[in-house]
Amino acid sequence: MGQLDNQPENSTSSNTKEIEALLSSMTQELRDIQQNIVVQLARDMARLQAEQSRLTADIQKLQNQQQQIQSKQMQGGAGRPMQQQQWTKQLAQVMASQLQQELSERLKEMVAPPPPSQSLTTLDPNIGMSSAQTGNLDENAYRLLASLDTTLNTTFKNLQQELSSYQSSLSQQLGRMHSLQQQGEVILETLVDRLIEQLQSEASNVQTTAEIVSNRRQGLPVGTPTNRGDRPEGTGTQSDRNAAEKAAMAEVRTATPATPVPSPPVESNIFLTGLILALLSSIIISFQNIITRAILSPQSLFGLWSGQVLSPGAGNSLLILGMRMLFVVPLMGFILAPILYPNTWRDIKQLANPEKRGSVWIVIGSGLFLFMSQFFIYIALGNIPTGVAITLFFIFPPVTAVLAWIMFGARPSFIFALATVTIYLGCFLTVSGRLTGGAPDGNLGLGIGTAIASGLTFAGYVILTQLSARKLKLHPAPFSVINFSVILILAIPFVILGSGEGNFFTWNVLQENWTGLWIGSIALATTTLIGYALNNFAIPMIGAPLASVVAATGPGLTSLMALLFIGEGLGLNEWLGVFIVTLWVLGISVDNMNKQKKPAPVAPAPAKQGA
């Protein structure tokens, strides 16, 4: 210990200096290494940036070249499958010829005999080696042939796939052209038929008028054929005949004929038959309302059943509507509609075309409004008398006219405004009888509200039907098939939902009432189809405007039939309201018929209008 304590202090200071020198040298080396790494990284960054700029330039150049190639292809008629097939065949031929030439050259080189010097040196001892070389040559040849075969097979498969794709695209384009050709033929055929009918009717009208005036001038009875060969001298030129026809037309229009011109008996029979069919259609539709009333309220119809089959309500109304459409849709779609219009399903399929696909919502929307109208009127018929419900339902003609004014610009007349006020007065008189007499068999407020709602939604259905006729030019038969199908599709989910308990759409049917319910549903479906068919047969005979006039007798006919068939009478105020509504609905229909009717000559042929 004494020796350690006696050591000098210089040793400690020298160790400290050595450590500091070592640290300084290590620091300097680390700085040099850092500087070298930074320099190398800077060089690498510069090189990468240069590479990046060069790659960007190459990409831009390739994009420009691609755009130029695409523009040249578009200008040169790209998309022509026949030219591309020819180019592919030429390319395949060139590739095959080049591969064949190269293969023949390689085979010649491998099969060529070795030089004479080598053949002399390999006579006796190396005979085995020459045969081995020959085997190697054969193996190489087979290997080259196999690779060539694989390459050719792959090439021809690719070519076959491209040709198949070109053929499929060409067949699709030809199919589109064929469909467009068919549509054009149908349009031209319809246009030509209409022009021929119009020209024939005009020619027959002019001929009939000229004969009538000629007979009157000669003192012959009306309808006697004139001898066109016995004309006075000087009247044989075309100008004289034209002048005579114009004078005859003017005389007929200005003067009242002394002898009435009777219509041909065949035409009068056709008109009378059409009028009877339209009236029968209106009677059957009214009878359909009475059947619905008998199902939903305690009534007795022909002794078939007494007492209600179902209680009035939302779920039961939807159940009746769904069961009715379950029979109507297949019978209408597959039996009645093809009879009335053979091209029903062709027109329905054409709605999937791109030019009509955007307007299909009109047909679906009309089916939705018809579904709501039927749903509301079923609830109304279960709570208030049939005549009152149908009278309130017939508020739809004024609402339809107002909507047509808003959407189509068809401004109503003063007669229409007077009729609207009177119709609403008649509805008030009909409802006042219920308010004073009460409605012991149902909910009065619910019945009145749903009857009015049914009329309003039916007005929306009528407007969408007119819009469909303008945009889609769809025949009523396929239009009705789609509407009935929409009603069935909408009713099915509610019926399924109503099979449970505790919701708004729950339906309740007693076990002993299922038979009467099925009978009532079949009767509703039958009256629907028969009424529709009779109306479609009547429209070509008497015209759509007159058929609408006959259909406007609905409130009066329904009230009378309800009194006769189920003994459902009305009060004095109610009968007065029914009479006023029926009268002014008839007035609106006659006014519309006069607006649509064109001035016709004397004794015209009946117009053959399609349904």
* Low-pLDDT windows of residues: 1-9, 116-129, 212-241, 244-266, 598-611
Number of strands: 2
- Termini distance? 135 Å
Strand content: under 5%
Total helical segments? 20
The SSE order reads: HHHHHHHEEHHHHHHHHHHHHH
Indicate the mean pLDDT. Answer: 74
User: How many whole angstroms does the radius of gyration measure?
Assistant: 47 Å
Largest sheet: 2 strands, antiparallel
Strand order of the largest sheet: 1-2
Overall 3D shape = elongated
Q: Class by helix and strand content?
A: mainly alpha
* Helix content percent band: over 70%
Structure overview:
By secondary structure, this protein is an all-alpha fold. Helices cover 79% and strands 1% of the residues. It is built from 20 helices and two strands. It has a two-stranded antiparallel ribbon. Strand 1 and strand 2 (305-306) form a beta hairpin. Helix 11 runs antiparallel to helix 15 and helix 17 (514-542) runs antiparallel to helix 18 (544-551). The N and C termini lie far apart (135 Å). Mean pLDDT is 74; it is low at 1-9, 116-129, 212-241, 244-266 and 598-611.
